[in-house]
Batch of 2 targets.
Target 1
Amino acid sequence: MTRCTLFFTLLATSNAFGDPVPVSDPSNRGGWTLIESVSDEFNGDSLDLTKWNNLGLDGNYYNEWKGRAPSQFNPANVTVANGNLTIASRWDPDFQFSETPLKGVPYGKAAPVTTGSIVSKAMFKHGYLEMRCKAAAGPVSSSFWTTGIGGEIDVFEHFGENPTNSNSAFLYNTSFHDWRKGSPHFGTRIWENDHHLNFKVADDFHTYGLEWDPDFLRIYIDGRLINTVTRQQLGNQWVATNEQKVWIDSETFDWEMNPALLKAEHFKNSPRFVVD
Ligand SMILES: [Ca+2]
C-alpha cells in the first residue's frame, strides 16, 4: 500500500522529497509521503478555501450540519495567522442562530454559543494523521476527526476545561463510530480509548497521531505509541473501510457538560483551539 501522511504541524525533519515525516517515525522507516490535498500547515494569512470548507461561510453549510446544538458554527470564528489555524468559541447572543432545531435541540437557546468547523474538500484512504495543537481552555470540544461512508474515526475529542468535571482536561479520547445503514451498532461508539495524560490538553502544544492501516489503528502522543486496535479484534465492527474527509472543529458536548449550565463567564476569553 502507499504510505501516506496528513499533517497539521510544522516538523523539523523531512523525507527525501522535503515533506514532513511523523514525529513517531523521524527516520521515515515507513516511507511516508505527504497527501497535500488534505494536509495544511496554515502558513498563509487566510484559510485555504481550495482545500477547506469553512462551515457557514456565506450561509453555506455544504450539506453538513450547523454544529452541535445549542452551539452553532460561525465561520467568523475561524482564522489563520502566524502559522496557525485558530477556532474560537464565543458567548454570542447577537449571532443569527438557525431556527431549525437539531434533533429537537434549538440552536442558541439557553447557551448562545458559537464555535467553528472546517472540513476538507478532498478525501483520503489509509495513512498517518498527525496534528500539533493546543485545545481550547473552555467548555467546548477541540477535535480532529474524519468521516466517510459507514464510519467515523475521532483521532481526538479534547474537552479543554470542564467546570463540572476537572478530569476532562487530562483526557486524550479516541473513538471509532459505526454509521453503517442497518447495522445493529449504528450511531454508537464501537471502540474507545480514554488515555489519561499527565498534562492538560489546553495548557500547551502537543502532537497527536493516528495511523490508519487496513488492518489496525495506532494512537500516538508526542511520538509515543499509546494503543493499538486491530481489525481482527473488532471483527464485524471494523468500519474504517471507506475514504474519509478531515474535520477540525469545536462543539458543545452535552455528554461532557449539560448545556443549561454553560454561562457567559466560561467564554469571557473566547477559548481558542489552536492548530500549528
Ligand atoms: Ca503551522
Target 2
Amino acid sequence: MGYTDDITLILPKECCYCNSALGTESYELKASWLEHGGRIRKTLIISVPICKTCLSEYKTKNKRLSLVGYLLLASVIGIPIILFTSLEGNCIWPIVAGIFIFGLYYLYDDRFIQPILPVRVIPGGTLLFRNNAYDKEYRNLNFLPPREGND
Ligand SMILES: [Zn+2]
C-alpha cells in the first residue's frame, strides 16, 4: 500500500465487486491526484480483493468498452484531418475539433468506463468502491464518515 504519506488502509476481505464471495484475487488500483492547489502530486497504489468471477467479468466489460472507445475515437479523429487538409491556412478548426474529441473522450470515460471500475479515488484521496455495501464496510473499518446518500 502506498499513499505517499503512508496511510494504512484496512480493506474488508470480501470481493469488492459483489461483496458476497471472498476476494481471492486482487485488482490493482493506481491513482494520482494533485493537492495543495496543484503543488503536490499524491500517488496511491493499492491491491483490492476481488473474486475470480467478478475479476474476469470486469476485465471482459473493460476490454469491450475500451475497444468501442478506440473505434469511436478513430472514427472522429478523421474530422480534424479532413478539416486541416480542406481548410488549409485556417488552423482554428483542427484545434476546435481537437478540443471536441478531448471532450468526447472524457464524456465516454465518465459515462461508461468509470461506472464499471471496482474502485476509484475521488478528489482528496478517498477510495470510492462501486459496491455500496463494500464501500460502507470499508468506511466503517477505517473510521471514515459515511458517504453522502449511501445509507
Ligand atoms: Zn465478486
